[in-house]
Amino acid sequence: MAANTEQQQQAVSALPLPPSFYENYTDENVKNHRAPPPPLPPSDQEGYSCFGMTFSQSNETPIVPPLESQNVERLHPESYEHKRELLKMNHSLLCAVLDLLHILASSADSPQRAQKLADIYLILIHMQHLINELRPVQARDALAAMMSRQVEATNNALSSVAKIINEVANIVNRSSSPQTTHVNGLTTTEEENELYESNSTDVNHHSLAYHNPLFENMDLF
After folding, report:
1. Rounded-to-integer distance, Cα 119 and Cα 94, Å
2. Which DSSP letter does residue 95 get?
């Protein structure tokens, strides 16, 4: 009985409460895997309930119900462009507000005041209806923007990975090549180091022979 009363309140309320089963999806329940699994996507023949209203998967059922189903007089034609109609209604709304201010300034108790308020309310209802009809376009654009950001983030991550791979490959190539050392600020290989060391030894031998006391009194040149 209480569940039926709650469903009736949600169906008639302009701002319905969230469904009660959301309480099962607490952080603790989700962490401990106690939260109920999500329902399966409805098939094409089945509908789904959202805020007390049932929607069909077919394209014949509009997401936003028409104004006639809400007993609201239609001001715009059957075939229309949203941007053009919103601009027209915005202009009509400004004119209606100015008329209301003029009525309030001249005679606040005038019966025209109630009529002008009703006109403003009707214009606002139409503007809200046109904006709600653009919600699917907004959702599609928001999804496209989110996917574009994901693609950009993926490309940046791939570029970073490729850069790291190149750096690692360069390190491996340097480690597999002949070992190099720095002698007098110059980079040399092991073979060049051996040649340098042998030449240095010969030079040292000549130097020792030149400074030998046996050769001090000899005129070598």
Report:
1. 11
2. H
Strand locations in 57-200 (E): 180-183, 186-189
Read off the tokens for 157.
């991550």
Domain ranges of the chain: 1-61, 75-133, 142-177, 180-215
Q: Check residue 190 and report its DSSP letter.
A: H
C-alpha span between 3 and 34 (Å, rounded): 23
Q: Are 10 and 16 in contact (CB under 8 A)?
A: yes
What is the value of pTM for the model shown?
0.50
DSSP state letter for 71: T
Give the contacts of 146 (CB within 8 A, at least 6 positions apart). none
Distance in angstroms (rounded) separating the CA atoms of residues 126 and 90? 10
Tell me which amino acid residue 172 is. Answer: V
How confident is the model over 193-200, as a mean pLDDT?
55
Residue 41 CA to residue 83 CA, distance in Å, equals: 34
